[in-house]
Amino acid sequence: MIENIETDRLVLREITEDDAEEMYKNWASDDEVSKYVRWSTHKNVEETKEYIKAEQERCKNQCCYNWGIVLKENQELIGAIGAFPSEDNIYELGYNIAKKHWNKGITTEALKRVLKYLINNKGMYRFRCSHAVLNPASGAVMRKAGFKYSHDDSAEKFDKSRCFDIKVYYLDIDKVKLVRPTEEHKKEIIEYKEEHFNNGETRIHACSKLDKMDNYDEWLNLLERNSKKDTVQSNWTVTTQFLGVREKDNKIVGMVNIRHELTTDFLKNYAGHIGYGIRPTERKKGYMTQMLAQSLKYCKNELNLEKVMLGCYKENVASRKTIVNAGGVLEREYQADDGKIVQIYWIEL
Ligand SMILES: CC(C)(COP(=O)(O)OP(=O)(O)OC[C@H]1O[C@@H](n2cnc3c(N)ncnc32)[C@H](O)[C@@H]1OP(=O)(O)O)[C@@H](O)C(=O)NCCC(=O)NCCS
Q: What pLDDT is attached to residue 87?
C-alpha cells in the first residue's frame, strides 16, 4: 500500500472507491480540468469508481504511485498526483487539482514533496512531466519544482477523442552515494579539507578529526580502529565514517559520521547518532537530504537501530530543515554554555 506523506497544508494518501463521489464532484466531472489532460471528463460517479479501481490495479502491478491530495484544514479531497514508469528508468509525474483550488501554490507544494519522497525513499533520480501548450500555469509549477523545458510534442487523449500539443520537461537529480574512505580518496579529501579552510571555516563537520590531522594514512588508521568494538579508542564510540560521493563525477560532496551508540554525554546531549556536513560549494543542492536518507537506512539495516537522535543549533536553519525533512520530531531544546539554543530530534526508523 502507498505510504501517506504530508506537507504544511496537505496530506497525500491513497484514493479508494469511497472517494469516488468527492473526486467526481471536485474535479473528474469538470471539463475545465480535463481539458488539458489525457483522461476525458467522467460522465457519472460510476465511471469515477471504475477509474479509481483501474488506477489501484495499475499501482499494484506496475510500481506506480497515485496519491489523493487532501487539505489538512477540512479533510477535503481536492486532487490527485501520481508517478508512473516511463522511458529509460524515467518516472513520469502527473497531477490534477479541483478548479476552486487553482492559484494557491498547492500543486507546487504537492509536487515538491512527491519528488522528495521518490528521490529519498525510493531511489528515483530521473523524472519527466508534460503540460498542454494551452495550460502554461502547469509549466510554471514544473519550473518551480526544478524541471527544465526539453521540447514540444503532442499527446492523445486515452480515449483517442483528440490530440493536443504539449511541452515536455525533465528533472535529473545528481545521485550521491555513501562510500567508506580509502587510499584512493586521498587527493580529493585534502582538497575537501582545504575548501573549508579557504571558506573561513575552522571546523569540518562529521570528519572524524580530519580537520586536526595532517597525515592521511593516520586518519584512515584511526577510522579503521574506531569502526570496531574491539579496537575503538577508550574515550570514543564505535563510528562508521562515510563520504558522500556524487555518482556522475565521483566528487566528494560531503561527509557523514554514524555513531553506533550514544555512549557519552556529548553524544546524548548534542551530537546524537549522526553527524554531517556538505562542502561549501555543494550546499543547498539537496545532497544532505539524500545522504541522511541513506544514513537512516544504514542505521536501520546494518546497526539494527529502531530510532536515532540528531542534534543541531536552532539557528542552523539548513541543518534543522534537513532533520525535519527526514522525519525528525523535536524532543527538547535547551540553552548550551555558549548561549545558543540546542535542539534534540529523534527519527523513528
Ligand atoms: C546543514 C547542511 C549539512 C545541509 O546540507 P545541504 O546539502 O545544503 O542540505 P539540502 O540541500 O539537502 O537542504 C536541506 C534543507 O535545508 C534548506 N537549506 C539548505 N541550506 C539552507 C540555508 N542556508 N538557509 C536556509 N535553508 C537552507 C533547504 O532548502 C532544504 O529544505 P527544503 O527541502 O525544505 O527546501 C549544510 O548546510 C552544511 O554542511 N552546513 C555546515 C555543517 C553543518 O551545519 N552540519 C550540521 C551540524 S548540526
A: 76
**Residue bearing the CA closest to ligand 1, atom 42:** 277
In this structure, are 75 and 207 located in the same domain? no
pLDDT tens by residue, 13-59: 999 999 999 999 999 999 999 998 999 999 999 999 999 999 998 88
Sign of CA dihedral 166, 31, 87, 169: positive
Which residue, of 139, 172, 205, is where some domain finishes? 172
Pocket test for ligand 1, best of 197, 319, 345 (most atoms within 8 A of CB): 319
**DSSP one-letter string for 283-300:** TTSSHHHHHHHHHHHHHH
| Measured distance CA(208)–CA(205) in Å, rounded | 8
Same domain, 121 and 196: no
Ligand 1: residue of 321, 323, 333, 343 to mutate (most ligand atoms within 8 A of CB) is 321
Last residue of a domain, one of 172, 202, 228: 172
Number of independent structural domains in the chain: 2
pLDDT digits (tens, 9 = 90+) for 81-129: 999 988 778 999 999 999 999 999 999 999 999 999 999 999 899 999 9
Do residues 66 and 53 make contact, with C-beta atoms less than 8 angstroms apart? no
CATH number of the domain to which 260 belongs: 3.40.630.30
